[in-house]
Specification:
Elements: E1 2-8, H1 16-25, H2 27-34, E2 36-37, H3 52-55, H4 71-84, E3 89-93, E4 113-123, H5 125-138, H6 145-154, H7 160-171, E5 176-181, H8 190-198, H9 220-232, H10 236-253, H11 262-271, H12 273-282, H13 310-319, H14 321-337, H15 343-355
Parallel strand pairs: 1-3, 1-4, 2-3, 4-5
């Protein structure tokens, strides 16, 4: 029987994509030198490396009419792979598990190993909201950040103490490794080193660190630029090219987001103040008040220069002239159509067109 199952459940927007890519890059080292199998079964071959196909039967996000294997069958398949590879341990990673409210659905996973260790990274609620908003906009979302906040709260996605209590009751408090994701601290190799320690591995230089950042969050200007184009509409090939260049813009601009004002951040953290205090007391050692970084060095939307979308337009023009021309053509076509029936599209196109010129 497998000795230990390491189950990494996210949460979303805590470097999970980077960690999953890291595990794929180092899967041979993990198996051959540490006996840890990062299974091929359940991974999307076109994805970064998450086991979302494995978690699909119990995921709240599974497609309607899902007719794939049951979760029990998936567990058997992954167990067979580990035995075939003569692994001592299993490592499974999928953020979908953090969204499962009824953990009794995961009962088959308890039979996979003698011991289960659940690894969860948590991110301060206001920063998580910004990162989630960025991700949704990259995927085509057209609304505002307040709508995302309401959705996260209504689905109980921001009460981390409750999440940890639920998982602790399921696998035992002593088997839950709660880590705090700090984007300021985890900028280089620190995240990978922290994750390896959770796998009971001493950190050394034998592991390959991915050279490129994975699934980059967009800056405030890039988010608004993409959101407006989501409203206007564009072909899929243009959408992919736009996301790519906006990620590069966000890295080069040095912006850390800053979609929220300081009062908005204070309000959000006040909502979860009691929950975070209990999280720090019971699950994060040495955190008697709150386990998360303070607001001191966090960007404040009200203190940032706002050039609208001008700086983004300029970056696209300087780095991909053909994409720039295509985007201008799309906006111009909408404006020339003068469709009074869809005022939201017209307003978005007008805002984008205005952004092509520096506002003084």
């Amino acid at each position: 029987m497998i000795n230990t199952l390491y189950l990494h459940i996210g949460i979303y927007k805590t470097g999970t994509s980077a960690l999953q890519h890291f595990c794929i890059e180092n899967q041979n080292i993990l198996l051959n030198q540490f006996g840890i199998c990062y299974p091929e079964f359940g991974r999307n071959p076109k994805g970064i490396g998450a086991h979302h196909y494995f978690s699909m039967p119990v995921s709240p996000s599974r497609p309607d009419g899902y007719r794939g294997r049951s979760f029990s069958e998936n567990c058997l398949c992954i167990q067979e792979e580990a035995i075939r590879k003569e692994a001592k341990h299993l490592l499974i990673s999928s953020e979908a598990f953090c969204k499962v409210s009824d953990l009794s659905l995961l009962a088959p996973i308890l039979k996979l190993a003698q011991r289960i260790k659940v690894i969860v990274y948590l991110r301060r609620q206001d920063e998580f909201l910004e990162a989630a908003y960025s991700q949704k906009v990259k995927e085509g979302y057209k609304g505002d950040i307040q709508e995302i906040e309401r959705d996260l709260i209504s689905n109980d996605r921001l009460d981390y103490y409750r999440l940890c209590r639920r998982w602790g009751s399921f696998i035992g408090e002593e088997n839950l490794a709660v880590r705090i994701y700090d984007s300021g601290r985890f900028r280089s190799t620190e995240l990978y080193q922290d994750f390896l320690r959770c796998l009971d591995i001493s950190v050394d230089g034998r592991f390959q660190v991915p050279g490129n950042r994975i699934n980059v969050s967009l800056s405030r200007e890039a988010i608004e630029f993409k959101r407006l184009f989501n409203i206007v509409g564009m072909p899929e090939r243009v959408d992919r090219a736009l996301i790519n260049i906006l990620e590069h813009y966000s890295m080069m601009s040095g912006s850390d987001g800053g979609c929220l004002s300081r009062p908005e951040r204070v309000r959000i953290l006040k909502t979860f103040e009691a929950s975070n205090a209990k999280l720090g007391k019971y699950y994060v050692k040495g955190s008697p008040i709150s386990p998360f970084p303070s607001l001191e060095n966090t960007p404040d939307r009200n203190n940032q220069e706002d050039n609208g979308t001008y700086s983004v337009w300029q970056y696209v023009k300087d780095n991909n002239q053909s994409l720039y021309n295509e985007l201008v053509r799309i906006v111009g076509a909408v404006l020339n159509a003068q469709d009074e029936k869809n005022k939201q599209v017209a307003a978005a196109a007008h805002s984008l067109w205005t952004g092509t010129r520096k506002q003084f």
